Amino acid sequence: MRRENEKANVETNGAMMHNLLDALQGASLAHVSLVTGTKQYLGAFENYGSGKTETPFRESAPRVLGENFYYTLEDIMFATAERDCFSWNVHRPHTVIGYARGNAMNMGVTLAVYASICKATGQPFTFPGSQVQWNALTDLTDSLVLARQMEWAATTPGAHNEAFNTVNGDVFRWRRLWHETGEFFELKVADCPETPQPLETQMADIAPTWAKIAEQNELVEADVTQLASWWHTDADLGRELECVNDVTKSRDFGFDHFRETRAAFFDLFARLRAERIIP
User: Does the active-site annotation cover 48?
Assistant: First the structure.
């Protein structure tokens, strides 16, 4: 649950974790899989990047100073695991994409909706983020990679009680992938602006336009707020620091599933069209 500040995030999400695990006490719980993310290394949005953690991020990196509800969830799980004798894993993906409707943090669906709007309105496909993100190496997590790693870790005793970074296994630069995405949607790609052009600002009044696009193309969702997470995509693409995750530990423990990020995006876009989420 996203709240107005990290103190509230800690209180709300910590209470949910406590309630869940307390309700399961005595239920012969065998294993808990906790999914957090790259804010483990970057810090909460309020002090983003303050830890200056070196890339590539490794699971052994110390926690960033300041409140972070990821740490709260971990600590509750650790304490409860000791109390109730279950095993656990922590999975730390970076920018998860996959097929989902109504997900508040799905860049893949958000970019597909944005590209569809650009095509319908004739506006150029403009990168909304920072020059740093445009040029730097980065990585991403396909939801199926995350699911497979969770299953593998939970069913592999030698991998229990460990934290694992969870990314596709390749790296990319947005300046290439953005052009490739534009080609997929047959769009004119604009040069990256000198300053960020946040989607939340660009798309502030787009709801009627999307409703019209949905009607004209017989799409299944006319409410753009149920598809696009402008704010979260802005947060990912607007960073002023490099974000690359090391998956050596996961591979050393035996998980070697790989997914090309470009293919993950394009397969998602094709499914969104087939399911009539986008034109």
Answer: no
- DSSP assignments along 16-52, one per residue: HHHHHHHHTTTS---EEEEE--THHHH--GGGTTTT-
β partners of residue 138: 172, 243
Provide the whole-model pTM. Answer: 0.94
Q: Which of 39, 41, 71, 119 is catalytic?
A: 39
User: Three-state DSSP class for 93?
Assistant: strand
Q: What are phi and psi of 167, to 5 degrees?
A: -135, 170
Of 7, 41, 52, 70, the catalytic one is: 70
- Residue 190 near residue 128, CB atoms below 8 Å: no
| C-alpha span between 41 and 38 (Å, rounded) | 6
pLDDT in tens, 56-108: 999 999 999 999 999 999 999 999 999 999 999 999 999 999 998 888 789 99
- pLDDT, tens only, 140-186: 999 999 999 999 999 999 999 999 999 999 999 999 999 999 999 99
7-12 contact pairs (CB < 8 A, 24+): 7/67, 9/44, 9/67, 9/69, 10/67, 10/68, 10/69, 10/72
Region 267-271 average pLDDT = 98
CA pair distance 14, 42, nearest whole angstrom: 20
Is-catalytic flag, 70?
Answer: yes
Contact (CB, 8 A) for 187 and 115: yes
By CB neighbour count within 10 A (0-12 exposed, 13-18 middle, 19+ buried), where does 177 fall?
A: middle
